[in-house]
Amino acid sequence: MYRYDEFDAKFVAERVEQFRGQVARRLSGELNEDQFKLLRLMNGLYLQLHAYMLRIAVPYGTLSAKQLRMLAHIARKYDRGYGHFTTRQNIQFNWPKLVDVPDILSDLASVEMHCIQTSGNCIRNVTADHFAGAAADEIEDPRPIAEIIRQWSSLHPEFVYLPRKFKIAVSGSAHDRAALKFHDMAVEIVRNDAGEVGYRVLVGGGMGRTPYLGYVVGDYVAKTDILAFLESVMRVYNQSGRRDNLYKSRIKILAAALGPEEMRRQVMREFMEIKQKGTLALPAEELARIDAYFAPPKFESLPDEMPKGDADFENWKKTNVHAHRAPGYAIATISLKPIGGVPGDCSAEQMDALAELMDKFGMDEIRVSHEQNLVLPHVKKRDLPAIFARLSELGLATPNAGLITDIIACPGLDYCDLANARSIPIAQDIAKRFADLDKQHEIGELKIKISGCINACGHHHAGHIGILGVDKKGVEFYQLQLGGSGAEDASIGDIMGPGFGEHEIGPAVERVVKAYLMLRQDGERFLDTYRRVGMEPFKNMAYLDQLYAAH
Amino acid sequence: MPLIKLSGESRTATLACDSFVRVADDAALPEDGGAIVSLTRFRKDRDALLARNAPIGVRLMADESPEQLGDDVHRLSVVVIEFPKFRDGRGFSWARMLRTRLNFKGEVRVAGDFLYDQISYLVRTGFDAFETNFTLEVFTRALSEMSTVYQPSADGRKTIRDLRSGK
Q1: Does A103 share its domain with A164?
Q2: Residue A374 clears pLDDT 70, i.e. is over it
Q3: ipTM above 0.85?
């Protein structure tokens, strides 16, 4: 894992004091709410429906046991005993008091954490493949470049007041677990024809009101040039991104208006200038220095045998244990989606217990996935039964990773100021309808993603089944979208038609799944079937009730 | 509006006297002394303005790139960049562009709506004059809040990477 040196530590400590000053100026009335709003957002502090919400950065989703313990401490001392892991690999606390926030930041700084740029119109906390450094199909670990991007983007003087927020994701595997094409900018580690490793850069993806898939702007950017290239994209965006309309100010709108050719031309012009000056060149020594922090743990030479256990263990293994690059090791997903629970929530007790588990089994890190689960990246296969047993005691062994009850949901109207509809109760209702594990296995991989408003924090555009909450004259309605994907076969889901009431959406999803089970051919996933047969048969099934009612 | 400038090798903040007058688009030019005009006025009266035997400045709005000045930029003493609203960050890029692309050596002045918390970013991106009501003490304090930086910018300041490698 990355460790702060004296410079990083001082930087974060000074940032905490700076924010302490900003809070004091707000409390004294020197700053008005309009001015303070932008400043607090840049440090992850939102004013929600009921209280402030603090979003803490978990850079590229990696946490140590010590950091997890600190999050548990914060949950207990300043909040209501739990935290909420988000679709951007961060953690949110829903009930902190404004006066406590500077102290929370100091506590975080003591374990090398911060809230810098977890909100606001700036470059947000960078995300990465949650299987980084462990996945069997990886070209290179994406975390070193993610860390380099974190440092470069922290309080970047030119790009803190962008037209709108800017999200960057990094991945190093053929299988895209970071939803690259849905990001403002994405860095994909690739190998060129000469066998050298560099980066492909995509720009202009996004969700929200007008979803777009990003397109390639840099086919192959050499390692030494990557910061110069990213800075070039930022310059084009800061100068030309729209500022007249909140909904048209993301880079996706600019990227769509310019088109790939013109975007490339503008980026290349900036790039040639920066490259020539050389100020942002990334020397090989610096890359090597950062790489060293992320060196994989020393893998023991172990027999590559998967232990067997009772039916519960076998079920968990089937979905929550994944291939690791080292023989005798595995990756384990800890589901934060208990049936009927709140997706992504984790209690202080669970966090502490997980930290203890990490210590006991010699694991120095845990990951947050954008699917709102946790991941143990380097588990010895022989330890799996003991780990499973402990997770079961903690209520963290739900065997549903990737299945229909592993639902992504934004906080929705239960917490969020922007939401039009509740998301969490819908997720809970759907999970209960499909609680039967045999049924879940019969259905197979099916990603449901729920957003409580058009901002799409629940990634509904990328759901195999996406659900969007809307407000129709004060009543919550839910639109269905089918066929989205956030993986390497990325696509934006198609809208089915009129929305369903809060009590109808669950049954409608059941009917859609039923249609799939009737329509599917040998081994097809829901997504494959949808792509083969299209919307019509699903639509006919989904609106069946209304049809009967009409006749 | 009081003016603060960074001056000398050490770029120390000092209170300065504004020797320029702002000339509205429809007003007559002063007989002598520095004058600041809009880009529109500059384009309209370019030859007359440059023929005046006095320093000239151009005031750019947030949507006006300094590149629109072309080579004339080097005949200007001041470029004023207007922040219409503190959340509009284009001015940071325009100042940086003036310094690093156009190699403009004159004064880059900020006017309009900017916050205490943006002063250090303004300095980093190349501004060296500030139309502001902040006192010198407050202005200087804003620059002391973050003592280290990660990115190279127009101020040529050493970055954390420079410091790490002992540069």
Answers
A1: no
A2: yes
A3: yes
User: A528 and A415 in one domain?
Assistant: yes
Quote the minimal CA–CA distance from A268 to chain B in Å.
Answer: 14
Residue A550 pLDDT > 60: no
Q: Which residue of A has its CA nearest to B158?
A: A279
Residue A545 has pLDDT above 80, yes or no: no
Query: What are A248's two structure tokens?
Result: 């048209």
> In terms of domains, do A374 and A458 share one?
no
Q: What angle do CA B151, B156, B158 make, to 5 degrees?
A: 60
Does B92 contact A235 at a Cβ distance shorter than 8 Å?
no
From chain A, pick out residues whose CB is under 8 angstroms from the CB of B112: none
Q: Which of B116, B160, B66 is nearest to A156 (CA)?
A: B160
Confirm whether A118 is domain-assigned.
Answer: no
Distance CA(A373)–CA(A337), nearest Å, equals: 8
Residues A200-253: tens digit of each pLDDT: 999 999 999 999 999 999 999 999 999 999 999 999 999 999 999 999 999 999
3-class DSSP assignment, residue A22: helix
Q: Which domain holds residue A81?
A: 6-109
Q: How close, in Å, is residue A418 to chain B by CA atoms? A: 20
pLDDT of A100 reads 94
Please state, in angstroms and rounded to a whole number, the distance separating the CA atoms of residues A68 and A352.
Answer: 7
Interface test with A, best of B64, B96, B146, B153 (most A CBs within 10 A): B146
Q: How many domains does chain A have?
A: 4
A381 part of a folded domain: yes
- Do residues A384 and A413 both lie within one domain? no
Last residue of a domain, one of A94, A109, A124: A109
Any idea what the CATH number is for the domain that residue A198 is in?
3.30.413.10
B160–A155: do the CB atoms touch at under 8 Å?
no
Q: Is the per-residue pLDDT at A548 higher than 70?
A: no
- The Cα B80–Cα B103 span in angstroms is 16
